[in-house]
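Handout, section B. The chain below has 351 residues.
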Amino acid sequence: MSASQTGEELNSEAPHPLRLSLVVPVYQEEESLPHLVRQVREALLPAGVSYELICVDDGSRDRSYPTLLQLAQEDPALVVISFRRNFGQTAAMQAGLDVARGQLVAFMDADLQNDPADLPAMITRLQDPDDPVDMVVGWRFDRQDALLNRRLPSMIANRLISRVTGVQLHDYGCSLKVIDGELARTIRLYGELHRFIPAVAHWSGARIVEVKVNHRARQFGVSKYGIGRTVRVVLDLITVAFMQSYLVRPMQVFGLAGLLSGSVGLFICVYLACLKLIYAQPLADRPLLMLGVLLIMVGVQLLSMGLMTDLLARTYHEAQGKPPYHIRHHMTGPGAHPDAQGETLQAELLK
């Protein structure tokens, strides 16, 4: 196989469906893009991986989009999506995921710090017949970033996220991931949840492994990350933690808090009522009375909120046909005919 072949030519030769959809969010990376397309081609074609490279321009103000259009004329494996404005990395990744056609889906950054040469080994690990997994996550073991504004906040965030989600990874910030296509298409990303893809997948029962990958210093442009994103990471972590534990049963968190608050408030009010009725003590100037009434009101509000969110959760799952479970395998015996059985059962019920 010639290294000069395009991904589209390889795809037309392959007897099986498209193997890999590589999704790359792009923002202000016009200098990196020609190198990215070439390196992806040089990494995947010799490995015999049929692929499509989905680049999502996230409202870049430089020449990233015209550069992608020009590159698409030269490489038919390149799929270009352009946003009307900057919607963020998570939205760009979801847009690429929505059009991905491959049996496997991979994510990586466009700044060339991720090495496309790591992809074949990650694909092999994902589909290891002795120990197949659902997701392979890159670990930038030897990071080429500044310590204070990139590596130190990342280390703190990694430990915090691992502790809260229960998914022990060294590097949540590494964009380089390879995911089973069926699993990837069940993941819905919004907000800033692209950092928590392993945690979201783990909630679905995915098997995840981490492998060391190459990390390179930035060659072009400037980093779009900084220590200011730490606050957003913490807020999104709260969302992920809630989704993992209480998405289908929100009443258990709001209801428990409401019962606790209301019970403490009721105890305080009963105590003060005894003081008033038995010892004739004045209560009007006691802050404890205000606290008791406030806790009862908060308890009622939390219980009401729990009821409403529980109804919303049920509506969310039922209206969109989203079951509160995820099936890994479904096997039917060779003598079974599910459609016929269903028709027979329906006929019996109508008798």
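Note. The beta strands are 20-26, 51-57, 78-82, 104-107, 135-140, 177-180, 208-213. Compare this with the example in section A.
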